[in-house]
Every structure is written in C-alpha cells, then in structure tokens.
C-alpha cells in the first residue's frame, strides 16, 4: 500500500506540474496572437486553436514529454502485473525499435539503449519490491557507473527482450546486468553493467527487510570483477588529476572493489532511479 500511494503521489505531482507549465505556455501563446485566455470562453475558434497548438509545441520542445508519459505507462504496467517474490530472479520486458529510436543509419540510437535500461530497471524494482522497501527506509538509489557493450545493431521494427537481474552487491551498491536479446534468433545484441549506489541505507538492510531473512550474495562473475577494477583505477586516476587525496582502501577480488566516498559521488553525473 505504501508503494502504491508513493507511486500515485509521484505521478500526480508530475502531471500537476506539467499541466501548470502547459497553462503558463498557453497564456504566452494567447498574448502572441493578441488574444487573452478569455478567448477560450468566446467564439474565437482560430485563436483558441493557435493557443493550443502553440502551447503543445512549446511544451514538447521544452520538456521531454514522452519520457514522463513512458514512465507513467511503465509504472501502471508493473503495478498490475503479479509481484516477483524472488528478488534475484531475472525479469524480462518486451520492446520494439520504433521510428523515434532510429539514428541516421537506420539503427537503434546508442543513447536509446540506456533509456530503455532505465525503464526496465524501474519496472524490475517495482515488481520485486525493492522500490517499496526503499520508501520504507527513506532511502533512494542513483546510478554510480554503467558500461554498455554493443554486439549487433537493432534494426527498425525489430523486436527484442530486455532482461534485467541483480548480479551481486556490496555494502553500498547493487550491481545489475541488463541484456538486449533479439526475439528473431535469441542473439544478445547488447549487454550493460550498472552500479546502483544506495543512499541513506545499504543493500543488506534492503534485502533483509524485503525478504525477512539474510540473503547471501552470489559469487562475483569474472567480468564483474574486472569491471570493478576498472572503476577503481578510473577513480584513482581522476583523484590524482583533481589533486585529491585517495582515501579509499584497496579491495581483493572476493569483495566489491573500491567505493567512491560521498564527496566524489556528488561530482558524478548520477541520475535518480
């Protein structure tokens, strides 16, 4: 119930802000065509049409409207689907390459892969209860790092499955793997690794509250260990370049690797999830 109220409240607030912004844009458009908002209450059909079209044009050019609408659709879909009780179980959502996903070469734009991964993680956390648990703990998660490898392009109208699963975690972050699998032949067209930093809590507390028991972390795959080593090396190099003292400890292959401190996280280009 807490998650449902939270999602309803968040969606309602976003919609209210968009409507308020659209109303302000409409007033501007009415002034441009030498009319006022009162044109809506008279027979000035032409002025009303210009106001509405102008407001929509400014709205779509100023705000990524489709992103917010897509977020609402994903939330509603996950809300009405049955929950996934196994928090480590892989989940799959279908997708298709649409015209607005294409680049100049007629393939799915590279940036669209990351966008689709964002929505898939949102769907994933809603169904397995992690979002609900985050809300209970007054915690949140941000993307601390991500790496994607493109193996084969996705063509126009090609159908695919986007598979998401938690691979492992440490005392500060979840490590998530996402795969774009072509429905045509099962080929993995792209694979992404993502580190989700937990703020104001930790993965162990989240899983303990969600599962009502201690959940053992799976063994780290070899590619994940190398990826964490890359992040650690990059962190040290950037600290040296910025003249900052490296206060993080080196880790062995059995644990998660180096973690950035709070000061560095504030300088990362993180996104809320």
From TrEMBL:
Residues 241-273 are annotated as: Disordered. Residues 249-259 have a biased composition (Polar residues). Residues 264-273 have a biased composition (Basic and acidic residues). Gene3D superfamilies: Hotdog Thioesterase. Belongs to the THEM6 family. This is Protein THEM6. It comes from Esox lucius (Northern pike). The lineage of its organism: Eukaryota, Metazoa, Chordata, Craniata, Vertebrata.
């Amino acid at each position: 119930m807490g998650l449902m109220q939270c999602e309803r409240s968040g969606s309602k607030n976003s919609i209210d802000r968009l409507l308020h912004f659209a109303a302000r844009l409409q007033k501007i458009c009415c002034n441009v065509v030498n009319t006022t908002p009162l044109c809506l209450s008279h027979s000035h059909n032409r002025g009303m049409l210009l106001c509405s079209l102008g407001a929509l044009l400014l709205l779509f050019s100023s705000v990524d409207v489709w992103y917010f609408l897509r977020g609402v659709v994903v939330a509603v879909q996950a809300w009405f689907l049955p929950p996934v009780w196994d928090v480590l179980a892989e989940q799959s959502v279908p997708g298709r390459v649409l015209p607005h996903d294409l680049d100049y070469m007629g393939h799915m734009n590279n940036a669209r892969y990351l966008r689709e991964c964002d929505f898939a993680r949102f769907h994933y956390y809603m169904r397995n209860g992690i979002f609900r648990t985050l809300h209970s703990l007054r915690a949140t998660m941000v993307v601390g790092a991500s790496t994607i490898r493109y193996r084969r392009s996705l063509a126009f109208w090609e159908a695919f499955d986007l598979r998401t699963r938690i691979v492992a975690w440490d005392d500060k972050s979840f490590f998530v793997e996402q795969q774009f699998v072509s429905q045509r032949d099962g080929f993995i067209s792209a694979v992404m690794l993502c580190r989700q930093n937990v703020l104001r809590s930790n993965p162990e507390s989240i899983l303990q509250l969600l599962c009502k028991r201690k959940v053992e972390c799976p063994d780290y795959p070899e590619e994940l260990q190398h990826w964490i080593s890359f992040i650690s090396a990059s962190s040290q190099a950037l600290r040296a370049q910025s003249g900052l003292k490296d206060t993080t400890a080196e880790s062995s292959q059995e644990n998660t690797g180096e973690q950035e401190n709070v000061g560095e996280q504030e300088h990362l280009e993180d996104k809320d999830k």
